[in-house]
Specification:
heterotetramer; A alpha/beta (181); B alpha+beta (405); C mainly alpha (219); D mainly alpha (445); C: 219 residues; mainly alpha; 9 helices; D: 445 residues; 16 helices; 0% strand; globular
Chain lengths: 181, 405, 219, 445
């Protein structure tokens, strides 16, 4: 637990924090609203005080009631992992600004989060399915994607569980709308 | 261009021909993003070629659609998911112990590094202190696994450039390592050895005698076999200056591991975010400044030497004691979130776990480094030849099992 | 690369030529038996001895060692001995079913809560969330619970135990050690019969009935 | 009729084959006998009249036939040598030390499905392997194997060799274009670019040799190099040899220049869509090419069939008739006595060995000894046997070198390949030519 980091984060990001900062083990967690993502991450990335240059992970989370996007950052200035949770995305239309302008490599991780959760990253130039087939319609890591018990245990002997829940969301303004015919 | 030799509507061969159609890599649906639309509009004199999913040098089932102008690559679009098994979903529906077994086949040439971050994350969640001997055993087996993985990577690098022999020399050494790991873990590839709170079984005599034999000649053998390639003009000329990336871009592309260190950034989680007993061990972080395929290749040799140093120290400093902590039978970590990452042979292998207080993880996120290295193809490859893609791909050393999860 | 072009290649050729005459490492598999690791894990299977009898002694050690309780002894063979099941055992399946229900957002029947007067679990969860589910801060959690409920209801303690990972016995010990924490409700004669006490009484009555029935059956 | 059909139905498959093949053979033999009986004299007259034509037909047939075992042998050598260099054992299951594995490979490609992709130009697709294989075999016609043992000695031999050898690129292009596959197309175009680029340094590197030898007949080349090994052209044209060797490797599509079928890049290049015996033709042509390239190197630079030193004139005067009755006695008793004598050391020295094993060992030893003696006698007595052995020995040394290179070196890149040909090999070949011409002017031939 890096108390110094906690003080600095609270001082610099005070107005962006959506809930109190938490620390446990070697992790420091801040929670922010979706609209604050570009500002906060730009500050964390660019500011020499923080210097979070390494994006260790980008992950989508479905809490069952809302969606989250979780970034893990690493900086030489602190022994902690910094976890930035973007909370309060609606499950019906989760949208969050893309951070590909900071880390171009986040593009595929955002694509994966879109693929698995349907979270739309606004500003990602190539937001399409990556692991699932392009004509797949549901989002498998959402909690309402019910993975039948047998299917988890015995491959092949289980239940077919392909496309279950909702139709895919439109991936933002970047979508090229072309009619099929 | 399809030619139908059969005209009878009843002939099954005709339907087969029609189903296959022309073998165009252009997808049969309208493009969904600007990038896709731009890529799949083929210009004058360009052609699209499917490299993979069944191609000798795609390291698994990677499919890359290449836009070629002659032999020169104009653009390329990696298509993933041919090996997608939904491991994250499976882990979210499995017991904490079960998840470890699911993780093994991800990076199947370095399985221990897939288990490691998961058990680290669970130990953090459960507040378990791992015995020191278990930590030493983890480091020892992990570094052995790193060597075997690097050897394989270097061998396949040569194989993708047409050299038949280095891969087999690599396999000789790798087989020694794999056999000795099998003697303590029970399996040759999918070890399933790390447990929450320690490791599954102590070192045994067979392992130690094999390791001793191997350590006595490992470095000389590896170096002698590298003489086949390191000075070979054909190999060096094909790799030098190819797929060059600078450190800034590499960081922006979220690169980690040897590929990032080959650009000059000494980012190694064993030092950058120390875990296990690495702070007590003495080793260097080799870096190179060129950032090209040759640097990535040579850096792996340096890493093998450092790993041998670590193994040597582990053997000398290993304390006695138990190899498993006292852990409850039924593990219900308290609700919370945790992130753990280790320095795998390909970079930072991370696991992000959310626990909701049950015996199953609520969210289990696997962060695979190869996934991010593959992403950089459109930066590295265009402008080079088709054959250069094989060299770049081999030097990035992706494992598709981990990429596709 | 050296000054004279081609030396690297010549060195490589020299290496392969040297290897050409070295002893080979190939193991001729069917003639030379493969090396099976000591801890080799194959398929779980019960072996028969040369007389055709099961080697399994039904010692239950495997079932006890299994971390996820997926091995269980059950069923009877022709000699009146147990079989080993691998795969889903009954208890294990129940736990799987429970988690599957939870994932699907359906109510999970939890027998450990039904025996006690219901408490507002959401309130407890809020308190726990505020204290980060940390068992090291148990005293503060318990104080907050007492502030919320007026005393420490058993259901709330069970909830705290389940969510924070601390043993119920330890929490109960903490709660009963400090004088300012009250495990039972404050006696208030004006409210008449305590509903919680009623529920407890019902439960005890049911237990007694069940035990009586059992003893009757045994007798 | 029904009786015949029922009898036929009862036959097993080998029986059916036998009953089909045997009458055919019988009919053919009878027809041959009839032809010989009726027109025998006329045929002999014709053969005498057109001796050259008959000789050519016979030698072309023989050469066509020996390419197959040659390819088998080189395939086996490649499997085994590369395996040994990889510290593997290599093939060891079929035949002694796996020697029959390449024959099994040959049978395998014969039995595979002959497949034509639906978009392919089937005529060109079928013709391409024929062209490639034909070009390879035709170049063998001018190679002199031994004194008097060549298909055709003709005074433009070298030119013919390069002209016909260059034909194979047409076949590769045909294969690449007609397969309806982008990898095949890339492979075909690569082969065209590579062959065209390397033809030039290849031809130029030999021009110096032509100035020295003053002939294009390969026989004449060999005869020019007789005597001590210092007469070999390698010592007069070392640079020419290096250029020739590199360019020949590229011409034969061998590692490190095997770009046309670079398996890790373009799957199998021009041969991607081929299967069965059509692929077999490509495969055999590649290995026949290795033999041809080695043979030409030996003929041009290493003295062909000549021994590296003037072999002392020995003559073994064998007159079996002079022995009289002892000849019969020797034939009758020789093997028995020889076996016993050679088995004696086994019996005496290794008491654990059963007698019959010792006898078998003695018999095998005797056979080896006799075969060796006969070979030595033939080597001494017949010039062509000695020449053939020297020639094959040198040629297979070069085959070994090619396989060795394949086992060691990675592949070169296409642009480096072309750059190497045009920037280095071509100027070097020109330099070699000028230096040779100048030396001839100064020193005289």
């Amino acid at each position: 637990m890096d108390v110094q980091l906690k003080r600095r984060l609270e001082a610099r990001l005070g107005e962006h924090l959506a809930s109190p900062l938490r620390q446990r083990h070697d992790e420091t967690e801040i929670r922010i609203a979706p609209a604050a993502v570009p500002d906060v991450l730009r500050l964390l990335h660019d500011d020499p005080d923080f210097g979070f240059e390494v994006l260790a992970d980008l992950s989508g989370v479905d809490t069952g009631t809302s969606m989250e996007v979780v970034y893990h950052l690493w900086s030489p200035a602190t022994p902690d992992w910094l976890r930035v949770s973007v909370i309060g995305l609606s499950r019906e239309d989760p949208r969050v600004p893309s951070i590909t302008f900071l880390w171009q490599g986040a593009e595929w991780m955002e694509r994966e989060a879109y693929d698995m959760f349907g979270i739309v990253f606004e500003g990602n130039r190539d937001l399409r399915r990556i692991l699932m087939p392009p004509d797949y319609t549901s989002f498998p890591l959402r909690k309402d994607f019910y993975l039948a018990d047998d299917a988890a245990r015995s491959p092949g002997g289980g239940v077919r569980h392909m496309e279950q829940t909702s139709a895919p969301l439109a991936p933002g303004e970047a979508l090229m709308r072309r009619s099929q015919a | 261009m399809t030619s139908h030799r059969f005209t009878s509507a009843d002939d099954p061969r005709v339907t087969l021909d029609e189903q296959l159609g022309t073998f165009e890599p252009i997808p049969p649906y309208p493009p969904r993003t600007e990038r896709e639309a731009e890529f799949y509009s083929v210009g004058d004199g360009e052609m699209l070629v499917n490299v993979g999913p069944h191609h000798p040098s795609t390291h698994g089932v990677l499919r890359v659609v290449m836009k070629l102008d002659g032999e020169r690559v104009v653009d390329l679009d990696p298509v993933l998911g041919y090996l997608h098994r939904g491991v994250e979903k499976l882990c979210e529906n499995a017991d904490l112990h079960h998840t470890i077994a699911y993780l093994d086949p991800l990076e199947y040439v370095s399985s221990l590094f897939c288990e490691w971050p998961a058990v680290m994350a669970y130990e953090k969640l459960l507040g378990i202190r791992v015995p020191r001997r278990a930590e030493y055993i983890r480091v020892l087996t992990g570094e052995l696994n790193r060597i075997s993985s690097h050897l394989l990577a270097m061998g396949f690098h040569a194989l993708d450039l047409g050299g038949l022999t280095p891969i087999l020399y690599s396999f000789i050494e790798r087989d020694e390592i794999v056999e000795m790991l099998a003697s303590i873990t029970g399996q040759r590839m999918l070890f399933n050895y790390f447990r929450i709170g320690g490791v599954n079984g102590d070192l045994n005599h067979e392992f130690l005698s094999r390791l001793g034999d191997w350590m006595s000649h490992a470095l000389t053998e590896v170096q002698a076999n590298q003489g086949l390639l390191n000075e070979n003009e054909l190999f060096v000329r094909r790799n030098r200056g190819l797929g060059t990336i600078d450190s800034k871009t590499a960081l922006r592309m979220c690169w980690t591991g040897p590929n990032l260190r080959a650009t000059g950034v000494p980012f190694d989680l064993r030092r950058a975010h120390p875990y296990s007993v690495y702070p007590e061990l003495d080793f260097d972080i080799p870096t190179r400044s060129e950032g090209d395929c040759l640097a990535r290749y040579l850096l792996r040799i340096d890493e093998i030497k450092q790993s041998l140093r670590i193994i040597d120290q582990c053997l000398h400093e290993m304390p006695d004691g138990p190899v498993m902590a006292q852990v409850p039978r039924l593990m219900r970590p308290r609700p919370g979130r945790t992130f753990a990452a280790v320095e795998a042979p390909r970079g930072e292998y991370g696991v992000f776990v959310i626990s909701d207080g049950t015996d199953q993880p609520f969210r289990f996120r696997i962060h695979d480094p190869s996934f991010l290295h593959l992403q950089s193809f459109p930066l590295l490859v265009p402008g080079n030849l088709l054959a250069d893609w094989m060299a770049i791909n081999a030097s990035l050393d992706p494992i598709m099992g981990g990429v596709d999860k | 690369m050296s000054l004279i072009p081609g030396t690297g290649m010549v060195k490589g050729m020299a290496l392969t030529l040297r290897r050409f005459f070295q002893p080979k490492v190939t193991v001729r598999y069917p003639e030379v038996p493969a090396n099976v690791a000591v801890k080799f894990r194959g398929r779980l299977q019960l072996l028969h001895d040369e007389n055709g009898a099961l080697k399994c002694e039904t010692c239950f050690q495997c079932a006890q060692a299994c971390p996820v309780e997926c091995i269980d002894m059950g069923g009877v063979d022709t000699k009146g001995r147990f079989h080993v099941h691998w795969g889903a055992a009954e208890t294990y399946g129940e736990r799987r079913e429970e988690s599957a229900l939870r994932r699907a957002g359906r109510p999970v029947p939890d027998p450990s809560h039904e025996r006690f007067p219901a408490v507002d679990v959401a309130l407890v969860d809020e308190i726990l969330e505020a204290h980060d589910h940390d068992p090291a801060r148990m005293l503060q959690i318990l104080e907050a619970v007492q502030a919320a409920f007026g005393h420490l209801p058993v259901g709330a303690l069970k909830r705290v135990s389940e969510r924070s990972g601390a043993d119920y016995a330890r929490i109960y010990g903490t709660a009963s050690y400090y004088h300012h924490l009250r495990v039972g409700p404050v006696e208030s004669p004006s409210t008449g019969a305590n509903p919680a006490a009623l529920a407890d009484a019902d439960y005890l009555a049911a237990i007694a009935a069940a035990a009586g029935g059992a003893s009757r059956a045994a007798g | 009729m029904a009786v015949v059909a029922r009898a036929w139905g009862r036959l097993t498959i080998p029986g059916k084959v036998l009953f089909t093949v045997l009458p055919l053979l019988l009919a053919l033999g009878l027809a041959l006998a009839a032809v010989v009986g009726l027109f025998g004299g006329a045929i002999v007259d014709l053969a005498v009249q057109y001796g050259e034509v008959v000789r050519f037909l016979a030698s072309a047939t023989i050469i066509l036939l020996i390419t197959i075992p040659t390819a088998f042998l080189i395939i086996f050598m490649e499997m085994k040598i590369i395996a040994f260099m990889n510290l593997r054992i290599g093939p060891d299951r079929v035949g002694p030390w796996g020697t029959l594995l390449s024959v099994v490979h040959g049978l395998k490609v014969l039995m595979k499905e002959d497949f034509t992709p639906s978009g392919a130009d089937s005529l060109v697709f079928t013709l391409a392997p024929v062209v490639v294989y034909g070009a390879s075999v035709m170049t063998l016609l001018v190679i002199p194997f031994a004194p008097g043992l060549f298909a055709q000695d003709f005074n433009l031999g070298l030119l013919y060799f390069f002209a016909v050898g260059g034909l194979s690129v047409v076949g590769l292009m045909m294969a690449g274009w007609s397969s309806f596959n982008k990898y095949s197309l890339l492979g075909g175009l690569r082969s065209a670019a590579q062959m065209v680029s390397y033809e030039i340094p290849l031809t130029l590197s030999v021009v110096g040799l032509l100035l020295l030898a003053g002939t294009m007949s390969l026989n004449q080349f060999v005869e020019n190099q007789s005597g001590w090994f210092t007469n070999w052209y390698i010592f007069q044209q070392p640079l020419g040899f290096v250029i020739f060797f590199i360019a020949m490797t590229a011409e034969a599509n061998r590692t490190p220049f095997d770009l046309t079928e670079a398996d890790s890049e373009i799957v199998a290049g021009f041969a991607t869509e081929y299967s069965g015996m059509r692929f077999g033709f490509f495969f055999f042509a590649e290995y026949v090419n290795v033999f041809i390239v080695s043979a030409l190197t030996v003929v041009l630079f290493f003295g062909g069939w000549n021994a590296p030193f003037p072999f002392p004139e020995l003559s073994v005067a064998l007159d079996p008739g002079g022995l009289g009755i002892w000849l019969l006695v020797g034939i009758a008793l020789g093997p028995v006595v020889g076996t016993l004598i050679l088995a004696a050391p086994f019996i005496l020295l290794r008491s654990t060995m059963p007698i019959w094993q010792a006898l078998v060992a003695g018999f095998v030893l005797l056979n080896a000894l006799v075969v060796g003696l006969v070979l030595a006698w033939a080597f001494i007595s017949f010039e062509w046997v000695a020449g053939l052995l020297w020639f094959l020995g040198k040629t297979y040394a070069f085959v070994f070198t090619f396989v060795w290179m394949r086992g060691t070196l990675p592949r070169i890149r296409i642009d480096q390949l072309m750059g190497f040909a045009w920037k280095w090999l071509l100027p070097a070949a020109l330099l070699n030519l000028f230096v040779t011409a100048g030396a001839i002017l100064v020193v005289g031939r």
